[in-house]
Design brief:
Distance between the termini: 55 Å
Oligomer: single chain
Helix content: 10-25%
Number of strands: 9
Length: 140
Amino acid sequence: MRLFILLAIIASYSLEASALRLPCVFTVGYNVEIISQLPLNSSDLMFHCQSKDSDLGFHNLTMDEGYKWHFCENIGHTTLFFCHFWWGADHSKQFEVFDHAMGSTKCTNGICNWIAKDDGFYFTNDFAHGTWLKMYAWDT
């Protein structure tokens, strides 16, 4: 019974930490940001992101706008966020913007930054000084 109560407290704290940006207790916290660097005067970047437990909804970004969220990885290390992106009538792409393997190898400082450009999607874990690595091309 005590174990159940302890697990319930941990679970509720993790949910609160995610919503209020409190420090994560038994797991690592991550910040994911998606930024549009699509050409000026082109269509907005539209996207929908979610995990098994959290639907972040649909969003539109104009040039140089960003959308970010914070979460605590779950204890089982199975947290996964995926997004479906659209740009105009001819471009779309769906991929995982975070999973445990990415968190432990690429988001080493707890930061996962994605930029959408006209030729695809780029990733870095250091927005100011990092190298942007092209990860995906648009599906057309």
